Amino acid sequence: MSEEKTVRAALIIIGNEILSGRTQDANLQHLAKELNSVGVRLSEARVIADDEAMIIGTVNEMRAAYDYVFTTGGIGPTHDDITAECVAKAFGLPLIRNAEAVALMKAHYERTGRELNEARLRMANTPEGAALVKNPISTAPGFRVENVYVLAGVPMVMQAMLENLKPELIGGKTMLSRAVASYIGEGNMAAGLSALQDKYGALDIGSYPFYKAGNRFGTTIVLRHTDADLLESALQEVAALMTSLGGEPEFQDMSDG
Amino acid sequence: MSEEKTVRAALIIIGNEILSGRTQDANLQHLAKELNSVGVRLSEARVIADDEAMIIGTVNEMRAAYDYVFTTGGIGPTHDDITAECVAKAFGLPLIRNAEAVALMKAHYERTGRELNEARLRMANTPEGAALVKNPISTAPGFRVENVYVLAGVPMVMQAMLENLKPELIGGKTMLSRAVASYIGEGNMAAGLSALQDKYGALDIGSYPFYKAGNRFGTTIVLRHTDADLLESALQEVAALMTSLGGEPEFQDMSDG
């Protein structure tokens, strides 16, 4: 993969329970960090309802726009789990009962002594030709069709599936990040930061205000780039800017992009 | 407002720091619950980067598709805060220095003895004709243009802005919800739930598995509808289904939609 190419991914979070506020999503942040560790940039995420037309439309729009698409949610055994059939429709593929998935589930349910009924067997349905993504937690697999990975919504299961599929991902350069903070307000840093942004062009300079007890406010500056030397040089300039404004820069350990 | 009309809203979360995994979004869940309390349904959310073309395109797509659009993030004083100018471009309006916002900020900075410099004055820029959304926390206001509300990303500030604008929102009927749980697996509930879904049509029946220590697994069923009587009747049928499968239904208190 060329050094210049940015490999971009999108996440589609499927679930009425996220949109109603009942459940707090926990998959976006984990996916973002894991993808970055293999040089893939999470570039957009959407939260949509358990709605067939919406799922199909969103999958088709995003698989055309991004290198990888991940979906979470809607792959359980109940009537509201419609992700697999919607992804099949998005690709114009028949939804089949995947023999490999059935075999995995039969072995699992025999081992645990629970009944593998028709509802649970629905979790073995995939678009024809899909590659399975193993689920070491509860067996019912995720799957991949072309550049679209269909994963569970339960964070523990989603994380295990992601761990299994990660070696398949072909990333570009890993985005590196460094951060420095001080008790200087954003508004006092702004002019100097703007000059640094002009100087460093492609460097991503993020400015994040924080408040602490006792009416102390300050700013964390997060720098992102794939070039460690450029990052270090810019970091020292940001720290010097903070010092020039009367701040005491504190460097933060950031290894996660 | 007619009883039949569903008032739908979308949220646009603007910020590289969410997509990189550095920051966990805390605004979606709060917004969802608050909107529901006034009869507005959060129907989609998108997380996008601090990127002009992406912000403009997303704002224009969503303001045409939903009754209300809320954005969070990107309204601070630094170079990476580009939401206000992008929303102005999305509407084809000039970005102006809003005199009312300037007056509010002047009073605030005089009171606190801090410098109201050019960078901070950028936070008084709005599209021409925008209505301000007051910010009792840090003064720099949000604003509204037509059906698009532009809010801060910092949760404490966003929440205060939302509290101020809530009386303006015209909602439909409030979505009510009830939930019941038992230690019956989703796969055992599925057939019965599917029959209930067929019977109750427009009722939203969500099924959510849970795991507890000691290998105990079960399912929470969440029912949503605007009609409290219909909801109660369906809830009793779900509880009866759980009992018939050997479960002991526990009703959960859910007041938040």
Annotated CATH architecture of the largest domain in chain A: 3-Layer(aba) Sandwich
Going by helix content, strand content and strand pairing, the class of chain A is alpha/beta
Please list the strands of the largest sheet of chain A in the order they lie side by side: 2-1-3-8-7-6
Q: What is the CATH level 1 assignment of the largest domain in chain A? A: Alpha Beta
Anisotropy-based shape of chain A: elongated
Which assembly state applies to the chains in this document? homodimer
In total, the number of domains of chain A comes to 2
pLDDT < 50 stretches of chain A? none
Report the biggest beta sheet of chain A as strand number plus sense, adding barrel if it closes. 6 strands, mixed
How many helix segments of chain A? 9
Which superfamily, in CATH terms, is the homologous superfamily of the largest domain in chain A? Answer: MoaB/Mog-like domain
The average pLDDT value of chain A, as a whole number, equals: 94
Rg over CA atoms of chain A:
22 Å
> Strand tally of chain A, please?
12
| CATH fold-level topology of the largest domain in chain A | Molybdenum Cofactor Biosythetic Enzyme, Chain A
First CA to last CA of chain A: what distance? 20 Å
